[in-house]
Each structure stands twice: as C-alpha cells, then as structure tokens.
C-alpha cells in the first residue's frame, strides 16, 4: 500500500487511464498551465501535452457541451469543474444531453464521460459556493454518481468511472484533497461502481454516511463505543446506483438506522434512503429512522454559523441515542 493524498490518488487514476487509453483527455479551467486549482492535475501537462490536458475559458456550458460531443464520437473526456457549484452554468448540458442521449438514441450513441470536481461546503465560502449536489443530480436517470471518502476509493472508483460507457458524476469534497490514506498498489486497481464498504461492524445501530460525512460518522461511532454502544458504519461510496442492499442487510441485524447526509433535509439522499429502508425493513425496525443533515437554509458565511449549519458528531451521537430511546 502506498500513502497518497486524495488529490494524488485522483491524479494517479487519471494518469494510469490516460496511459492506458489515448482517447482519454482532461479539460477544464486551469487544469494545464496552473496544474489545477487544487493541484489534482499537477505535472500532467508535461506528461501528456496540451492536446490531452486542455485549459479552457470560464465557460462551463461550452467545454461540457464540447466534451459530450467528443464522447459521442468515441473519446473519453474527463471534465473538471473548479467546483460543482459552477455546474449550474452547464446544467442543461449535463441533464438534457449527457444523461439522455444514450436513451433517446436507442443506445446508438454512448456518452463515456466523467464530470468531476469539488463538492459540498468547504468552510466560509458563502451560500453560492457551499452546495452539495448529490440529491439534485441523483434525481436524473442516466447519470451515475460517485462520492468517495478516502484516497483508495477515489483512485479505484475514478478508474472505473473513466472506463464506464455512461456519464459519471464524480463528487470530491474540497476539504479532503489533502487527506492522506493508504492506496492499493495492485496493478490496474479498480473498484466496482455501486458497491458499499462496511467500515465498522456493530450490533446496536447502523450509521450510513458518504464523502466527508463518513469521517464524522466514524468519529461518532468511536465515541459511542466508549459508552457501550456499537455501531455499524456503512460508506455507500456510490449515490446512484445506491447500494441499498448493504444497508438493508445491516438494518435487519441492528434494527435501527441513522443516515448522515450533508445535503439539505427536504428531498435529500437521507430522505430517499429512509424511505427505501422503511419499505424494505419495516418489520425489522425498532425505532423511527433518524437523519443528520445540513440545516434547511442557505449556507451562512460566519464561522460559528457554518459550523452550526453542517452535520456534526454531536448531532450524530444524539440521533443514535434517539433510536435507542436513551
């Protein structure tokens, strides 16, 4: 196992896939000359040249649409958005074209494209730069959505995403680009899309959390263990298709569920998971499903307010205890 930063794991995945397949290219704002806004693509321009590492103007709709067309013609673009907040500018391209062309063409046109970049709140960036996009885009059939929590998953899942013949949205927390972790050095290491990872086993409650919320859930589980409460923690890794079977299996054992989700509560990922679990596990549940989400208001700017707005360890512990009637 090698120890890499999250950004280095992403770079390794893209580099390996570009070495493997000459049809893969990277495009986006500052990905080339500046080595990427978060240095994910550092050194890739020198290795692959300007025809495959392509700087763009500030024109998300333009370079997203261009790359969707390139994907239809057989290339495999990786489109980097400096932040997923900027995808509102390219929303029509992603939702009306990337997600639907394969279906509307009866399978005659494939769209092997990856859209990736920073997602979710990243401190004091204000309401327009602090959105979590999982729930919004998961409402669109035709898109696959991945939100990894660690460098190993980031590398293995990004390689799988680049090889997929469908459009994949790869959501990376801006706060985790510097996160270090062990990454497999296995040759051609990939992780299948749609498989959850059970990070911790416990009999008292199931906690489900993805992306940076996974670390919050793990911290809560460790604190609960000191109090004699053992939690299973599941990282779904993929938001669409969602690995609901893994959650069902766990809830049938623990009889309780807490979902931690940085999205807003109304219509969020936690809402959908909660619905599916009550439908599939109603007779197994010993308590109502609890969710821990961002507050249902735009993200504030002040440090104390953004911290109160985000899901927290204390809120997760409280939600677990509520399911246990403590």
Automatic annotation (TrEMBL):
Write the record's keywords in alphabetical order, separated by commas. Answer: Oxidoreductase, Thiamine pyrophosphate
What start and end residues bound the annotated signal peptide? none
Show the CDD domains listed in the entry: TPP_PYR_E1-PDHc-beta_like
Q: Which cofactor does it need?
A: thiamine diphosphate
Keyword Transferase attached: no
User: What are this entry's molecular-function GO terms?
Assistant: oxidoreductase activity
- Tell me which residues make up the Transketolase-like pyrimidine-binding domain: 4-179
Q: Which InterPro entries match?
A: THDP-binding, Transketo_C/PFOR_II, Transketolase-like_Pyr-bd, Transketolase_C
- PANTHER family per record: PYRUVATE DEHYDROGENASE E1 COMPONENT BETA SUBUNIT, PYRUVATE DEHYDROGENASE E1 COMPONENT SUBUNIT BETA
Indicate what this protein is called per its UniProt record. Answer: Alpha-ketoacid dehydrogenase subunit beta
List the source organism. Answer: Rubrivirga marina
């Amino acid at each position: 196992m090698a120890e890499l930063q999250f950004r280095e794991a992403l770079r390794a995945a893209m580099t390996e896939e570009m070495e493997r397949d000459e049809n893969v290219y990277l495009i986006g704002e500052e990905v080339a000359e500046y080595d990427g806004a978060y240095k994910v693509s550092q050194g890739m321009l020198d290795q692959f040249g300007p025809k495959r590492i392509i700087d763009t103007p500030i024109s998300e709709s333009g370079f997203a649409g261009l790359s969707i067309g390139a994907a239809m013609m057989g290339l495999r673009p990786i489109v980097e958005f400096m932040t997923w907040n900027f995808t509102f500018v390219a929303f029509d391209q992603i939702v009306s074209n990337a997600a639907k062309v394969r279906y509307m063409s009866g399978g005659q046109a494939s769209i092997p494209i990856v859209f990736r970049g920073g997602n979710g709140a990243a401190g004091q960036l204000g309401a327009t730069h602090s959105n979590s996009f999982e729930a919004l885009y998961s409402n669109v059939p035709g898109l696959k959505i991945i939100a990894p929590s660690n460098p190993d998953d980031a590398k293995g899942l990004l390689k799988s995403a680049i090889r997929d013949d469908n459009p994949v949205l790869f959501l990376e927390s801006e706060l985790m680009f510097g996160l270090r972790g062990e990454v497999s050095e296995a040759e051609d290491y990939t992780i299948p899309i749609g498989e959850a990872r059970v990070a911790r086993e416990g009999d008292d409650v199931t906690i489900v959390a993805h992306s940076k919320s996974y670390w919050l859930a793990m911290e809560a589980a460790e604190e609960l263990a000191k109090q004699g409460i053992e939690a299973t923690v599941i990282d779904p890794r993929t938001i669409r298709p969602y690995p609901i079977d893994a959650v069902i299996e766990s809830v049938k054992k623990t009889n309780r569920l807490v979902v931690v989700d940085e999205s807003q509560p109304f219509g969020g990922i936690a809402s959908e998971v909660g619905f599916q679990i009550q439908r599939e596990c109603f007779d197994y549940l010993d308590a109502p499903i609890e969710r821990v989400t961002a507050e249902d208001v735009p993200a504030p700017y002040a440090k104390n307010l953004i911290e109160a707005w985000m899901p927290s360890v204390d809120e997760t512990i409280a939600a677990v205890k509520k399911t246990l009637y403590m």
